Amino acid sequence: MDNTHEIEILPDHIANQIAAGEVVERPESIVKELVENSLDAGASSIAVHVRAAGKDMIMVRDDGRGMRGGDLERAVLRHATSKLRESADLHNIRTLGFRGEALAAIAAVADLEIRSRRAEEDHGRRLVMRPSSAPEIKPDAVSVGTQVVVRNLFYNVPARRKFLRSNLTEFKHIHDTMLKFALGNPGVQFSLHDDDRAIMNLEASTEAERVATLLGADSAETMIPIAYNSDLLRIHGFVGPPSLARKSRADQHFFLNRRIIVSRQLSHAVLTAFEHILDKQQFPVFVLYLTVDPQRVDVNVHPRKQEVKFDQDRLVYNAVLDAVAAGLRTRDIVPTMEAGPLPPDVRAPFERVGFSDRPGAALVNRVTGELYEPSRRFNDGERGGGASWSGGSSGGFSGGSTFSGTRDFGGFDERRPTAGDRGLFGGETPRERQTDALKFDGESAAPFVFQLHRRFIVSAAAGGIEIVDQRTAHERVLYERALAALGDTPGGAADSDAPANKKKEAQTQAAAMQELLFAVTMPLSESDLALLRSVEADVRALGFGFEFGEQNAAGLTIKAIPQDLRIGEEEQALRDILDQLSEAPERDPADRRRKISAAYARRCAVKPGDALKTEEMRALLRDLDKCGSPALGPNGRRTKIELTLRELEKRFQ
Q: 207-330 domain in CATH 3.30.230.10?
């Protein structure tokens, strides 16, 4: 018999290290597993302490049920769990942790210490375990509950430790996970310490109070309560109005039976409820709690138990959509309309008066009583013999049968100016601007330029006409101006070929600052504050002036903003910058400056619908021409197109 073979049975310590690769990705993974165990143990108070963002030490202490000596010894073995007894239990999971791999996987890549005691015991026990070593258990004086300490993560797997990110990034992951635990379990007291600094200290509270504490009291006041019940599931929680929308999904929280879950499908359902309400690249803020019979959901489809699968996915999707849409309707954000058949007078309101056989007869609106006089713009022969009436600013009537509520002159806005109309620098009314924009007195006058549909700038070019997207063009100008203020030249593939003289010219522009008459206090989470501190010099270089509060509750005090930024948008501008960096805060400095500049430019740029004065349009075109890459915006979109005379001639052939 041939006893040679290539297949070997792995030793336990190697198998545990492989399992650790699935369970322990980073320090945050350990915090998540240990806090879940504390919640399953019925803890009412959970404290987490980390050093060096968890790389050197993680301690999780709770006041839960604790473990007996025999259970403590078994807890560090693979596949050891107190939460399952038979295979049928897999289809009725009611706990957060159940795989029985967490402690064994942690002990394979770090030094582990567990101290635990049950209420009915006189003393507790202390377990100490190092990788590839058997655990040592001794009696210990410890309070009721469990305390787990993890030290020197990945010290025996240097390749894994090398791939950990900076302390800022790793701590942000820990903080975000603790924030989710706190939102999902408001009846539990949570505290979080980074080194010796208190980051979070939350007393047990209601869901509404916890949301107000963690998302900001001002935000909580405008949050919309959600309540939905059906035979399949129960949904409750809070959804933010459009004014609280973010540029990232950072403040979107789903909890299924108090379990933190991530679901693209359910996130899409919430976003669909906001359809046609939010701008592109905006995401609603929400905290939603779903309660479902555990037998109707599979929580074992993801190694970290974050993704789940429902037995009726479509019904759950529709339930979330209906629940959020109903909540929005309570605030008239999604208005409802019950439309019946129109009365005859409304369907055909006009009636001729005078001599009805004459084309010059006037019209009267039977509903409003308005009289429409014949227009002298065209005679009977100028438009195929059809008469034309003008209703002043209210509308007109053409051809004797077709009514249009507005007059269309190819996009020139003839509506009356409103208080909300303002240009890039304020001032004139839209009608005055449009009249001035059409003045052209010949070769000696300024270049011909006008605004089309309040979105595009049309100007005469050497070989035809040039059409510029005002927002994208302004973003390019502000983007390069911001890069120059940050001591950088325009980046990206398109910018690499830019003329050196134009790059140098773009760098000469410095960010101007405007002092605020009243300082603005902006609440920020500790992770956002840490992120802002890491880019503080760059943000100040843009023209922001601010002070950090002594405590997290004080937030950030904004005292000055860039000259290009509209007053009132300072908080959202900083949010946009932080959102750009939050998903991948560990960026190289050049990429970080590009992200900051792009977010700043998007917030400060003119919007479609903003009316511009002629001088503003000409100044924008001049600034665009000075850019290093005038043809493309920071997002890669074209800033302008040119139609040559030859192309125009072809259109008329």
A: yes
Give 459: exposed, middle or buried? Use CB within 10 Å, 0-12, 13-18, 19+.
middle
Q: What is the DSSP letter of 91?
A: G
Residue 383 three-state SS: coil
Chain segment 446-492, per-residue pLDDT in tens: 467 899 999 999 998 878 889 999 999 999 999 999 999 988 655 44
Q: Nearest CA to 587 among 577, 601, 600?
A: 577
Q: Which CATH architecture has domain 470-640?
A: 2-Layer Sandwich (3.30)
Q: Other C-beta atoms within 10 Å of 27: how many?
A: 26
Strands (E), 470-589: 513-522, 545-548, 556-562
Six token digits for residue 286: 């929400």
What does the block give as tokens for 442?
Answer: 């010949």
- List pLDDT tens digits, range 84-128: 666 666 666 777 866 667 888 899 999 999 999 999 999 999 999
CA-based nearest residue to 599, from 494, 456, 478, 470:
478
What CATH class does 12-202 carry? Answer: alpha beta
The beta strands (E) that lie in 15-123 are given as: 45-51, 57-62, 111-117
Single-letter amino acid, residue 127: L
Domain ranges within the chain, ordered by starting residue: 12-202, 207-330, 351-404, 470-640
Which pairing describes strands 456-461 and 449-452: parallel, antiparallel, or unpaired? antiparallel
